[in-house]
Amino acid sequence: ITHTENVIPYAFAGDTSGDYNSWTPTVGSHLLKVISYAGANATGIATLAKVIHFTVTQGVVSVTPTPSPMPSATPTPVSSGPTISSITLINADSDVEQPLDGVSGHSSIITEGSNFDLSKVGQALNVRADTESAVSVKFNLDGGTVSHIENVPPFSLASDTNGDYHSWTPALGNHTLQVTGYSDINLGGIEGATLTIHFTVKSTVSTTPTPAPTPSPVPTATPSTGGGGSPVSTTEPSSYSPPTTITHGGTYSGNWQSTNMDVPAVTINTSEPVIIQNCHVSHNGTGIETAGSNANLTVRNCSFHGRTPTQDNRGRGGAILAPYFKNLVVENNFFENTATVVQAYFYNGNATDQETLRVRFNKVRNINGNFRNNTTGFSWENFVAIQNFVQSAGNPRYGEIAWNDVVNEPYKSSCEDIINFYSAGGRADSWFKVHDNFLSGAYHPNPHDDNGSAGGIQIDGPDNTRTAYIEVYNNSISQVLNGGMGAAAGSHVYMHSNRVVSSSKEYVTDPVNGSWTTGSYAGLWIFESVAGASPAMSDIRIENNLVGWANPDYVQPYKNRLDFLPQYNLGGGIKNNIPWPDQAITKATEDNEYQLFVQKVFSNNVKLGPQQ
Q1: 288-341, pLDDT tens digit by residue?
Q2: Together in a domain, 130 and 193
Q3: Which residue, of 72, 88, 288, 591, has the greatest Cβ tally within 10 A?
Q4: Three-class SS of residue 601?
């Protein structure tokens, strides 16, 4: 369903002067994507989309009729409750019953003492409870190692979406499965007898996942800036100059501040080459803005300091805003408490290495779109937002986002996609490269907001032609509400050799055990954000990544994990990835991921942040 609204209130099913039209969602899992535009009828500059996953269920109401008086009542037998007649093995790839011996036409019923071989039945499996009378079903595997409740048929251990079974791979060895039916939803009503089955899983071919690489010890003397170098202090100066406008090319240094949210600290109003270096920029609104001047801008060795908004219900400004640019280079800078760090719209360069987009060697702490006057309001912000490369110039060659250290902390930041491509990318002879970044944290002001919508790296937009030729590799991603990385649009997108590992917990309210951030969803995804786009999405590959994304509501591939869901694997491009071992992912795990990044920075002699 696709719908466009031009008049407030913006309603999915429309309205008439505030009288909302009725809409009844179908039972099952859904994905809702909302995009706002600057112009009417979905025209003009598009903002980043908000994506929400939700599930609709439908219970059965038990109605007890009023008994009629009878001269001599006959006692009614007490119901024994719903029965589970059998347990069936399911192939989650084909969504059909899977014979235990792998031979078509043979039995798929798991009976007491059954065994099956993963080399014959595959690893994408599920288990269905067969019942004619149960309204809800409880599964208990191995004494609670996996415990799951189903309210909608087919009742399956690893759940499903409208009959599209989710994938589950059982561990090798002996198992005990207990299944119980109930006469009402959520294990209500009468409890039926529990069906208990013991079965064995084996494999003539080893299916043990490749262990995650054991991190090497990180030298305690290694500086977080990495690679030595000559870093300069990011501490703010004692005084600033007022806002300035640059109208001619050249190299500029200084310290500028703007406290007016509608006036940038630095405005670039020339297409001549401008270099801004060795500076501090303090801003409530935008830090540096190119003002639509088809800019050629380099920003290096500067520190940006975002300030609390001076107006209610409005987010602070971004650090660098470059609409209509031909060259933008942002290297060796420090950013704290700003809104979107780099916004790059409408590329107008000549597609040479002198007119491109490069964002490298920067340090970022706490991207912040929070409003000043309430605890839940915020604006959608990013580290890098690359959008609407729809000009005749096409996409740039030699585009690169690399070696950036980005950390957002819960309760101190609010961020959507950390890196977002929207109708933008590279070229067939020069793919846009996103590599060797550390991307951690994308929270709402309340990290426990259920409506997580962010991605560590998201490929997005309505255009599968411009959104193309993007390679993503050697990045580390964690703690993102909604998930790690994926594509919702595009063609020729290749994501490989990344580390996508998250505990999906924040450790402020509970420093020891952590507290689940319920908006965190899955590690990887491929889905179509705009149905029917022409040409269709194609050649999306997400392969050979190390993936471990914690989620307490799923068993994919292990308990408390959702590395990815088969129904969000459009075209089957998510394959041959390495699952993190079946063990808890904790804050120590995430801290170690950062130390691995620091070690990599140091060993490659990369210098992060402002340098002398």
Answers
A1: 999 877 999 999 999 999 999 999 989 999 999 999 999 999 999 999 999 999
A2: yes
A3: 288
A4: helix
